[in-house]
Amino acid sequence: MESYFLDWANLLLRWVHVITAIAWIGSSFYFVFLDSSLTSPEDEDLKKQGVSGELWAVHGGGFYHPVKFAVSPPKLPGQLHWFFWESYSTWISGFALFTVSYLYSASTYLIDKSRMDWAPATAIAVALAFFVVFWLLYDAICRIFGQKKNGDAIVGALVLVLVCIASWLACHWFAGRAAFLLVGAMIATAMSANVFFWIIPGQRTVIAQIKAGEPVDPIHGKRGKQRSVHNTYFTLPVLFAMLSNHYSFTWSHPQNWLVLILMMFAGAAIRQFFVMRHGYKLGRNGNPLPYALVGVAVIVGAIAWMRPAPVAAVAAVATPAPAAGVAPVSGATGAGTAGAGGQIDFKSVQAVLEQRCYMCHGEQVQMKNLRLDSPALAQQHAQAVYQQVVVQKLMPMNNATGMTDAERALVKHWFEAGAPTGP
């Protein structure tokens, strides 16, 4: 029942997280587009009011005319919409999902003993430290270099180095799947912290100054804009890190840290193209197409580099010796997988399932409500076994029971032969 309720919590939190993330990222993309597409107002009355830019748009059968006041409007409206709940609800739901999916079962999903054999409490503490330490270092970089000459370039370069170091450490300390999620959550935490500590407080200060009839200090708007721009460059890298958990060929790669860095860099480069294209249409900057081409080239290069080596057809695969600490299966055959006429010997497949899978999917424990400890059940769930063991290589989780490539090949041949259960 615990597994059942955890699955429901995971589903509902993921649902909420995706919805709120769409709202947050959508508003971020829209305001970057809006800010890049504004033109000087033509109406003299707008100029007198202090409008610095305007945009005419058509959508949903109507015309829209948003305008921007560079520092402050002459009069505050009665209703003012704040864009912060999208950010806060995305982070809260995301952290809750990360807790349910990884921190709650740290020994299963967070820890890879072949990398770091530490206690669950230690792994959880280190994972949470990634959020705090990254934010503190990133924020310090922005404070120290953000307002200096070429500050944006300096901050960008230093943050890139910081993300690379964090990615390398995460992928060497945690299970690959968890490491990718952790890096994405780490950057997303910095994004939400930008809203909480800089963007919203700056806007509140400006409004307080307007209400008090005091001169508005433009530094608050500049700092908020800087952090908002950082957030928009973070979006595509974060989305890749979050989506990658569905594709094991990324986080299970021997150099998974490099895969993560390359794909996040490609995402940031492509985002730069979309940020600049609006200004390019108005003649404000050069053609941003090279940024998109660089991003695509990195992705194509990663695809070529990560392609699997051709695997020769296996006529017969011997059942390997049991993993350390796992008792051999009584009566299991160590002979080849194929019998006379090329038929699959199910006893060999059953030996692998018993050694590698029964502890989580047997009589005593049925994680995900899945049992494999009989020929009929193995055949009934053959499709799921094939997908998880052979295609995605997600199971056993973090390969805790030491399943070998030869054993995965055996399961593959058994499934492709129609998942027979006879001799």
Record the strand order, biggest sheet. 1-4
Distance between the termini: 36 Å
Mean pLDDT: 86
Percent helix: 55-70%
Apparent shape: elongated
Order of helices and strands: HHEEEEHHHHHHHHHHHHHH
Poorly predicted tracts of residues: 312-341
Write out key terms for the chains shown.
two-stranded antiparallel ribbon, mainly alpha, 423 residues, 63% helix
Give the topology, please.
Blueprint: H1 2-37, H2 44-49, E1 51-54, E2 57-59, E3 62-64, E4 67-69, H3 85-103, H4 106-110, H5 120-145, H6 151-173, H7 176-211, H8 219-243, H9 248-251, H10 256-281, H11 289-306, H12 346-356, H13 358-361, H14 375-380, H15 382-391, H16 405-416
Helix pairs in contact: 1-3, 1-8, 1-10, 3-7, 5-6, 5-7, 6-7, 6-10, 7-8, 8-10, 10-11, 12-16, 15-16
